[in-house]
Amino acid sequence: MLMLKIALTGADGLVGSRIVELLKDDFEFIPLPQKLMDITNKEHVDNALKNLDFNIFFHLAAFTNVPGAETNKELCFKINRDGTKNVYEAVKQKQKKFIYVSTDFVFDGISPPYNEDSLPNPIGVYALSKYEGEKIVNPPAGGQAMIVRIAYPYRTSFELKKDFFRTFKFYLENNKPLSMITDSLMTPTFIDDIAYGLKYLFNNYKPEIYHLVGSQSISPYDAAMKVAETFNLDKSLIGKTTYEEYILGKARLPQFATIKSNKNNFWKMKTFGEGLDVIKKQISK
Ligand SMILES: NC(=O)c1ccc[n+]([C@@H]2O[C@H](COP(=O)([O-])OP(=O)(O)OC[C@H]3O[C@@H](n4cnc5c(N)ncnc54)[C@H](OP(=O)(O)O)[C@@H]3O)[C@@H](O)[C@H]2O)c1
């Protein structure tokens, strides 16, 4: 059987590298790392894509440092908005399918829950830049692209970048105290589930918005407690704070990021507890 060819940016990142690892026998991935194709350089992009043969372009590359975006606004927009425009236009010319990975941060977190039909209202620089990317690939006149929003992705291991789960675990394992918000919600998503959900979406492409998110929203405090419970770590290291206290002097984050999907009837996403149980097994292998 012929494999779908998927050209992708961000293949070496936290999310992309696990997707490639899990789905490498199902699809032919063609990674386009920054050193081969800097997405902020239109000429690079046009040259790299001109003669490239692929069925789907999967765009994961982004400026992802949320606090850093507040002080690096220009670079953040250059990568997330202008870079997206460069790759989208080159792919559109070739009349190929395009998938843009976006974030739950496009929502303000004021009136949850948020599903695929909810109206974005980004509140920080990173969130704004990612929403600009969404509007490029999916303009009001009707877009040709699929948008896949993910939220708080976590995985068992990845040397290059710690996700929130491994940050909590690292603190607890090293007897460092954590001060965790009790009055906000996030929707943690096991990256393995994102990969398997994408397997369906690659094979069943539609130019629509999808949320591939965990099936439970939880406060950061409860999430840290769950990590301590699952890995037998010291819960007394976990202190409490409030949302308002935590964000003082920092970029505002959506407070109640309860993200839902009314479209995902193709892959059962795990709760945070279920994800941690799988991670525990993966670690002991
Ligand atoms: N991590 C999260 O919490 C989270 C949450 C929601 C949504 N998302 C979205 O998910 C996607 C993947 O995030 P991630 O956390 O896996 O990313 P990541 O680990 O920070 O990796 C970012 C990737 O983007 C590439 N990149 C950055 N600038 C580039 C440029 N100018 N040209 C080409 N490539 C460039 C990097 O390539 P090099 O390694 O070659 O430099 C790297 O592979 C992003 O679109 C992000 O917005 C992430």
From TrEMBL:
<keyword id="KW-0521">NADP</keyword>
<dbReference type="InterPro" id="IPR029903">
    <property type="entry name" value="RmlD-like-bd"/>
</dbReference>
<dbReference type="InterPro" id="IPR005913">
    <property type="entry name" value="dTDP_dehydrorham_reduct"/>
</dbReference>
<comment type="function">
    <text>Catalyzes the reduction of dTDP-6-deoxy-L-lyxo-4-hexulose to yield dTDP-L-rhamnose.</text>
</comment>
<comment type="similarity">
    <text>Belongs to the dTDP-4-dehydrorhamnose reductase family.</text>
</comment>
<comment type="pathway">
    <text>Carbohydrate biosynthesis; dTDP-L-rhamnose biosynthesis.</text>
</comment>
<protein>
    <recommendedName>
        <fullName>dTDP-4-dehydrorhamnose reductase</fullName>
        <ecNumber>1.1.1.133</ecNumber>
    </recommendedName>
</protein>
<dbReference type="GO" id="GO:0005829">
    <property type="term" value="C:cytosol"/>
</dbReference>
<dbReference type="GO" id="GO:0019305">
    <property type="term" value="P:dTDP-rhamnose biosynthetic process"/>
</dbReference>
<dbReference type="InterPro" id="IPR036291">
    <property type="entry name" value="NAD(P)-bd_dom_sf"/>
</dbReference>
<feature type="domain" description="RmlD-like substrate binding">
    <location>
        <begin position="5"/>
        <end position="263"/>
    </location>
</feature>
<dbReference type="Pfam" id="PF04321">
    <property type="entry name" value="RmlD_sub_bind"/>
</dbReference>
<keyword id="KW-0560">Oxidoreductase</keyword>
<dbReference type="GO" id="GO:0008831">
    <property type="term" value="F:dTDP-4-dehydrorhamnose reductase activity"/>
</dbReference>
